Amino acid sequence: MDIRDYIVEENTSVFDTMKKINTGAIGNAFVCQGLRLRAVVSDGDIRRYILSGGNLERAVYEIAHKEPIFLKEGQEDQAPALMRRHFITAVPIVNELGEIVKIRSYKEEFQGGAPKEKRSLDLPLVIMAGGKGTRLKPYTDILPKPLIPVGDRTITEHIMDRFAEYNCRQVIMIVNYKKDFIKAYYKDNEEPREIVFVEEEAYLGTGGGLGLLKDKMQGTFFMSNCDILLDADYADLLDYHRQSGNMITMVCAEKRFEIPYGTVQTDQNGQVTKLAEKPCFNYNVNTGLYVIEPSFLKKIPDDTFIHITDVIEKCIADGERVGSYLIRDDAWMDMGQFSELDKMKEKMEHF
User: What is the mean pLDDT of the chain?
Assistant: First the structure.
């Protein structure tokens, strides 16, 4: 990576900075005096500036963030964790003079280069596969959601294959709706899998269904909804979970939502106090993948319909450690509804 491809001078115009960002691969530019780091600006910063009617000839330093995140030489091994924690696409490495000597990017760390050898985790994987999949009707009137095909394999096969890369081959599948169909499919499958089926007698939700495993789980385990796929480093996720001492860690993706209208804020008397043109909001969204300790199961009431998110809220109220592990939005695929199913099929062609 040539660091000068991602550096602009303080007096560079917003317009020229935008062109440099567009030709780069990290989504932002570092504003420098020579090579000395002074600020950082992202494509999102510039987009919002333009939408507010900003002058493109203005010096980019005036709109940039003056407290950029960076690491010093010798701290490079902290780059992956730093990018995850702050959800940034790149981090500059500076010398004792504050000059950029190297840039570590998210793409290089987590997506680019030669494939990294997967670490053997050998942990159980629980797949919640008991729901009716009502958002995918009429498909699910015929096929249960866990057997909906994405490409040449079912969604649950894709999930299991990804965890198998980390030697997580012991699978526990919580089933209910069309459970005999699901069990028969995997019994007759050409590829043998180590699956234990746990049957719900009544619909218990993601929390209540998981509660059926009380006293059955002896250590840390992964839990996944049956309609998601993540492009993530599961070993790094597990390390983060354990180092944080969490009872449960939720994998989250940052979603950006843009309101396609100008918004108006008013006071209690109806007087306009603020205008915003097409404002954007960022939220951390629950992807449906978790790392869980057995103690979490004790928080689930017996024989009760309850969502796992309600159990998590109880843990928070009780002062338990509940962590979040951030991934990029484009690393999360969800087939919970028709529009997302089509997107997942399209993405899978490139994975």
Answer: 86
